[in-house]
Amino acid sequence: MNTRDKNGRVSFRWFDYIIQALIILSLISFALETLPDLSPQYKDWLRVFEVGTVIIFTIEYFLRIWISRPRGSYVVSFFGIVDLVAILPFYISSGIDLRSIRIFRLLRLFRLLKFARYSSAMQRYHRAFMIAREELILFGFTALIMFYLSSVGIYYFENEAQPETFASVFHSFWWAVATLTTVGYGDIYPVTVGGKVFTFFILMVGLGFVAVPTGLFASALSSAREEIKEEKG
Amino acid sequence: MNTRDKNGRVSFRWFDYIIQALIILSLISFALETLPDLSPQYKDWLRVFEVGTVIIFTIEYFLRIWISRPRGSYVVSFFGIVDLVAILPFYISSGIDLRSIRIFRLLRLFRLLKFARYSSAMQRYHRAFMIAREELILFGFTALIMFYLSSVGIYYFENEAQPETFASVFHSFWWAVATLTTVGYGDIYPVTVGGKVFTFFILMVGLGFVAVPTGLFASALSSAREEIKEEKG
Amino acid sequence: MNTRDKNGRVSFRWFDYIIQALIILSLISFALETLPDLSPQYKDWLRVFEVGTVIIFTIEYFLRIWISRPRGSYVVSFFGIVDLVAILPFYISSGIDLRSIRIFRLLRLFRLLKFARYSSAMQRYHRAFMIAREELILFGFTALIMFYLSSVGIYYFENEAQPETFASVFHSFWWAVATLTTVGYGDIYPVTVGGKVFTFFILMVGLGFVAVPTGLFASALSSAREEIKEEKG
Amino acid sequence: MNTRDKNGRVSFRWFDYIIQALIILSLISFALETLPDLSPQYKDWLRVFEVGTVIIFTIEYFLRIWISRPRGSYVVSFFGIVDLVAILPFYISSGIDLRSIRIFRLLRLFRLLKFARYSSAMQRYHRAFMIAREELILFGFTALIMFYLSSVGIYYFENEAQPETFASVFHSFWWAVATLTTVGYGDIYPVTVGGKVFTFFILMVGLGFVAVPTGLFASALSSAREEIKEEKG
Known about the structure:
Four copies of one chain form a homotetramer.
Chain A: H1 13-33, H2 40-67, H3 73-76, H4 78-93, H5 98-101, H6 122-158, H7 169-180, H8 193-232
C-alpha cells in the first residue's frame, strides 16, 4: 500500500519513489539552468529533461485524480493543489516570452513540499508549535518593535557621519537585520562612538533576543513530549 | 467592551483598531520622512498626515481622561503617560527650529508600546523572567567582566600591530562587542598570532557565554509553565 | 587493567598514555609540516619524528593483534580499522611521488578518534541523539528545502544587480550558507531593496532555524537524563 | 554586619561599598590611561588617582588581616590572595621601567572578581555546571577534534588558491575559529568550489556544535533547579 496518498487506493510505493527522484532531479536541473556559462547543447538537454518531467508529472496528476475516492477529492486537497501548481507554470509560460514570466517557475519548487508528507516526527513539532504559538506571536511583535527602535536609534547616531550607508531609517533597518541576527556582513556598521555604544546595548538585548525562540522551542518540545506520552500511556 | 482600557467604560473596539492602525501609519510616515531624496510635495503630504494624526491622538487623549473613572486615574497610569509622551513632542517642537529638536520625536516611537497591552502570553514570559532574574543579573555581571577582560587582553596583543584600530581599551571594547556576540562585522579583528590565539580562547568561552541566556530562558520557561499549571490545576 | 581495550588482556595504562601523547605530537607535527617558510633542517626533524611514530604505531598495532582474544577480533573491530588506517598511508605513500598522494595523509587524523573511547558521558549524548533522531532527520530535510528556496529567491532578486557574485543558484547557495548559519563573511550579500527585504524574512525564519537543533538537543538531553535515572533507580 | 567578609567581625557595609566604587573607578581609570591622545595633565591626574587607590587598597588589605579571626586566615584565603595580587604590581613596577612591566598591571583586573562574592544564584550555576561537567569535557574534546579536522580539510581545499591566507594548517585554524563560532570576520573565507562545499558541511555540523553547550546548560539548569527544590522541600 502507498503510505502517502490517503485518497488513492491502487498506487504503488515504487511509483512514488520514482516520482520523488524525478522531483529532486528537476530541482537540480532548474539550478543548473541558471549557470551563466552553459553551452547551448547542455541547455537543450536540460530543456528536454524539463519537458519530459512535466509530462510525467501531468500524467501522475491525472492518475491521482482518477484513483482518488471520492473522485475529485484529490483536486481540492493540499497536495492536489501543490501538484497542480508544480506543473501549471510550464503550460502557462509556453507560447509567451519565457524571460519575463520566468519568475513563476519558482512555484515549481513547491514540489519539494511533497517531502513533508513523509514524517511522523512532524506531529511533535506541530504540538510544540501549538504550545508556543502565543509566545511566538508575542515574540514576533517584540522583535518588530525592537527592529524599528534599533533602526531609528542608529539612524540618529550614524546618519551624519555616514550619510550614504545610513541614508534613512530604511537603510538603518538593513543594519538592524544584519546586527540583531548576528550575521554581520560588514557592509554597514556604526563608526561613531555614540553608534557603537548604542550597538553594544542593542546587542546585549539582542543576545537575549536570539535566546527567546530557542528557549521557547526547547521548553515547548519538552512539554509536547510529556503530553504525547501521557496521552498514549 | 474594550479589552484594553481598564479605566474606560464607554469606549468601543473599532475605535481602538483605528487608533492602532493610525499609530502604525504614523510610524511608517516617520520612517519615510528620513528618506534623503524625498520630493517637497511628498514632504508636505507627510507633514499634513503628521498634523492630522497628532490631532486625532490629542482628541483620543482627552476622551480617555474624560471617560476614566475615577477621573484623572488615566493621566497617571502607565499608558496615560505613554500616550501623552507620544503627542507632546509635536506641540513642543512647533514654533522652535525643527532640526535641532528633531531627536525628541523619537519619543513618538513609544506609541508602539501600546501593543504590549494585547497579550496574555506575556504572563508566562514575566514569570520566566522572575524565575531567572537572579541568574540573569549574575550573568550580566559576568558578561561585563568578560567584556572588560577581553578588551584589555586584545589591547595588549594588537595595540602595537594595529595602533589605529586597537588604539585604546575603548576601541578594543568595540572588538569585544562584535566578537563575543558573534556579529563579526569585519571592521576590527586581530592580525597577530597572539591576538588570534587569545580570540580562540575568548570565543571558546564566548560560545558558552551565548549559551547561558538561552539555556536560562528555556529552563525558566519550563518551570514557569509547570508553576502556572499547578496553580490552575 | 586497561579501560580502553575491551579485547586486550595484558596491556598497561602507562603504555596507552604514551601512545596518546604520541598521537597528539604527531598531529602537531603534521600541522607544523604545512608551514610555508619551514627550514629544510626542521623538515628533516619532522620527517624523522614521523617515521619514528609510525614505527611505534605499527608495533602497537601488531601487539594489539597478538593480545586480542579471540585472536584477530581486534583487526575487524572499529578501533582496529582506525589504527590501521592511521598508519597505512605512510607505507603506501613511500616510494610513490609524495605531493600527489599527500591528501591520503589526511586519514592519519582518524587517530584522533581514539580519544572517543575515553568517555562515559557519551552514553547520555547517544541516548539524547536517539530520542531526537527523527526530529533531526526532519529538521535536516526542512533545512535543505530552506537552503534551496533561499538560494533561488535571492538569485532572482540579486542576479541582475550583481551578475558576478550571484551568477547562478549555486553561487546563491553559498550566500544562503553564510547567511542562515549567521556566519556572514561579507564576501556576498544583497544590495537591492528586494534582496534585502527577502533576506530579512529569510533571517526571521532563520533565527528559528538555528533555534531548532538547540531546543531539540536541550529537550532530548533532559528526557535522556530522566530515562537513565528511572532505569537505574 | 558585613555579608561579604566571613573572617572579619568589625567591618561595615558602607566601607565595602566605597571600596567597590573605588575598584570600578580604578578599572575605568586604567582604560582611560590607554587612550592615545591623552594630554600630560590628564595622565598626571590618572597617576595621582592610581597612587591614591593603591594606598587605600593597601590599608584595606592590612585592616582585613588585622580583623580576621583566626589572624592570618585572610592572607591565605582566596580573596586575600586576590586582594594582594590587585595591589602588588604597583609596588613591584615602581622604580623599574614602567613600559616593559606594564603587562603585569593586567592583574589589577582581578579586583573585579570581588564582585563574585555577592551572588546567591551562583549556587544554581555551580550545580548545573557539576551536572553537565562530564558532557562539557567530552564536548570540549569533540570541539578540538572538529577544529583540527576543519583546519586540515580547508587547508587542502584552499591552500593552492589562496597561498597567503591559507598558508598553513595554523592559518586555517584561524578560519575554523571564525567560522565554527559563526563570528565570520570576513578576513579569511574559502573561494574554491570545493572549499565552499566543505564549509557548508562543516557549518551544518557546526550549527549542532553551537547547539550543544546551550542545550547542555538548559537541561542541566532544569535538573539543578529540581534537585535544589527536592533537597529544600
